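Kindly inspect this chain:
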Amino acid sequence: MHLRTDGDLHPVFCTIVPPHVLDHLSRSAEPRLADPARRTLEADALRRDRRRLTALAATPTRHTAGAVPSKPHRTLYDCEGGTTLPGRQVRDEGDKPTSDASVNRAYAGLGATFELLLSAYGRSSIDGKGLPLIGSVHYGQEYNNAFFDGEQMVFGDGDGEIFLDFTVAVDVIAHELAHGLTQYTANLRYEGQSGALNESVSDVIGSLVKQYSLGQSAEQADWLIGAGLLAPRVSGVALRSMKAPGTAYDDDVLGKDPQPGSMDDYIETEEDNGGVHLNSGIPNRAFHLLATALGGNSWERAGQIWFDVLTGGELTANADFAEFARLTVAAAGARFGEADEREAVLKAWSEVGVSTRA
């Protein structure tokens, strides 16, 4: 992976299902639920440690000069139930669909993300230079997660009891790939509030890709992350709700969605890198409030403001919510002037309790 070279290298290993969810499942009295969750936690811990070591030892690779591609280059692999990456190549860019629905969904999801970045923001792939997109499906046995490891996307099949195939939700695919976008731009450190921002930006991009793909306005969108991913036995609709954090699921096995939607309920914890998957609900809700206040297509104004901050060069790697909020106010003013957009940004952050004052 071609990482940013201006500053410290921030190794990342980002999963769509938070550790607290898997930890809750691992304590189930039903082995059919607990065992896959436990194996997933162990696999994630091993992969996270491996990523940390390889990233620290890595030598950044520079791109060669040339025209910036306007089309994606996707390559899909099949792990065939193993954990060696990337696996066996099964589809390259331009190949016809295969008989494997997981391969085809991942291929389409990577393409949808590339298309949004290029069409809405003029960016070629996650690095801005047409970086090839790599995905591996059928990772592990009943693996209950999907992740971006700094180099590629990886999708498990789920256990069929709690989680279904992780390629079924395009916003999950886009969410994970967006961690690469963040890595190439603001390079937000994956801990505390900067880590929660890292997760939130991925949720924002994931939701925008879904809305763009479906041709939905802010009002029409469901603002759910991972809708369709939960198995029928689960009492819930998705992994997260950007509109109403804390309401995505309430299940006897999975537990209750613990995400806060305002600073009044901010969670102080040492787990999950300081609650990056929990407190991300706060900036998530701020974005939803902004997008719905402005109306129309979320990627055009609200998304543009967030993208401007992510790529503008002023956001520090250790940014907290207040720093990000101040920069969104400035970005709205720079792009749209002293207009409705800037006022809507101020109001959105105020409603979730984040100060925009310097």
About this structure: Residues 55 and 135 are 19 Å apart (CA to CA). The first strand starts at residue 14 and ends at 15. The two ends are 36 Å apart (CA to CA).
